Amino acid sequence: MAREHRHVCCPARGALSGPAASRPHFLCKHEVLARAATGGKLSYLFDYMRDKMRKWREENYRNSEQIVDVGEELINEYASKLGDDIWIIYEQVMIAALDCSRDDLALFCLQELRRQFPGSHRVKRLTGMRFEAMERYDDAIQLYDRILQEDATNTAARKRKIAIRKAQGKNLEAIRELNEYLEQFVGDQEAWHELAELYINEHDYAKAAFCLEELMMTNPHNHLYCQQYAEVKYTQGGLENLELSRKYFAQALKLNNRNMRALFGLYMSASHIASNPKASAKMKKDNMKYASWAANQINRAYQFAGRSKKETKYSLKAVEDMLETLQITQS
């Protein structure tokens, strides 16, 4: 069921037909804040809103409700001042409107783009995304296939097809298409990471590890890739995988010493190695030290976060239990 939308900005006069055209004008919260910050001067207000949209666009923010609020106001009140920027704003607002179940606004933006750029593959892709939002997946796939017939190198259309397979729960088809895609575009890091996630969802950890290894080769300083690789190896189990897991959790911490997930991972992997009957005496002793160090660091982090919070007290108790368990095992 479509999510109910509370209209916060009026539609452009004459731009949208029907009941929306007669709605009263309400200031969006960003306009209220901007008017307060700029003393209510409309020229400054326009600059503020346009710059906000540009910042969100350039930094790939997914704050769809805010984009709809500000973008709709820009389109309604300042379209003539935007110049050529109006087209990229139409695209930005349309995608955000799909996120917010605002098909009226999405369709309006799409129609404006179609009039300006008839036959554009980029606009056709936006049409396909609207089909996806309406769950007309077959129509979307047919449209993307037509785009690919005209331009086989159109990566955006291929990725949209893969996204549809995921939305339909057809992970194996998505994996097959992603592998075919990566045969042609081997340097696409986003695709490698998506493939790793799909393999993890299918419990194919060996192939997920391979994808993450590809990512670490091109991004050796990305602590999140190291952490995720360590988690996959930990899940695979076995002494050799646990050792690799501990090493990569440690590497993730070296790259970002505030990565608490990696710190917990280091504790867990070292603890399991220390209690593994196949581990040598030296290996057990060393990993006991690593686990003890990690537990102490976790304890310090929670203490630093605040002693008065109830959640923190429970967390500290859990860490103290971890330390006590280590002491019992060591003795």
UniProtKB/TrEMBL annotation:
Q: Which domain of life is it from?
A: Eukaryota
Q: What is this protein called?
A: ER membrane protein complex subunit 2
Regarding protein family, the annotation reads: Belongs to the EMC2 family.
Q: How does it sit in the membrane?
A: Peripheral membrane protein
Chief site of localization: endoplasmic reticulum
Q: Which gene encodes it?
A: EMC2
Give start and end residues of every TPR repeat.
Answer: 189-222
Q: Which keywords accompany this UniProt record?
A: Endoplasmic reticulum, Membrane, Repeat, TPR repeat
InterPro entries the record matches:
EMC2-like (IPR039856), TPR-like_helical_dom_sf (IPR011990), TPR_EMC2 (IPR055217), TPR_rpt (IPR019734)
Q: Name one GO cellular component term.
A: EMC complex
Report the function annotation for this chain.
Part of the endoplasmic reticulum membrane protein complex (EMC) that enables the energy-independent insertion into endoplasmic reticulum membranes of newly synthesized membrane proteins.
Provide the organism lineage as a comma list. Answer: Eukaryota, Metazoa, Chordata, Craniata, Vertebrata
What PROSITE patterns does this protein map onto?
TPR
Supply the Gene3D superfamilies for this chain. Tetratricopeptide repeat domain (1.25.40.10)
Q: Where is this gene product found?
A: Endoplasmic reticulum membrane
Q: What sequence ranges are listed for the domain EMC2 TPR-like? A: 124-233
